[in-house]
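As promised in the previous annual report, we have extended the structural survey to additional targets. Below is the entry for Gamma-crystallin M2-like.
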Amino acid sequence: MGKIIFYEDRNFQGRSYECSSECSDLHSHFNRCNSIRVDSGDWMVYERPNYMGYQYFLRRGDYPDYQRWMGFNDCVRSCRMIPAHQGSHRMMIYERPEFGGQMMELTDDCPSLYERFHYNDIYSCNVTDGHWIFYEHPHYRGRQYLMRPGEYRRFNEWGSMSPRVGSIRRVTM
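The corresponding structure token record, generated without further manual editing, is:
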């Protein structure tokens, strides 16, 4: 069971809302979000309702202002707890849509997709075990995308407007 607390103002001030499960629309609970406290669990928070827009991966800790979670603004409209996974991680990435072209298998973190595979565009993927985060740039920087178990036939299915992926990290306990 996880717990995340959203605060309208910086430094954990103002109106707050406590959440312990996923929520597709937080708008009725607060107008803006300038600080977050994660008491337990791993979470993905989203800029827009229904798990859309910018995504931010948060672990246990205090985030006294939105820049601390690499936020672009004070807008948080949905959140999802990432279930703990103790087993192995496995994902197949493809250089073309619909699982076409060359396939590479990942079972561990990849700080630079280009250094490891000599390309950095992923058009489709199949996550078979564990949860992963795609990062737009190498070394776990830039826009983030939560990859849950399942098939993603095109990059827009994980919320991206581009196939560009710079690095990939497993969500581990």
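The CA atoms of residues 126 and 151 lie 4 Å apart. Helices lie at 113-117. These points will be discussed at the next consortium meeting with the crystallography subgroup.
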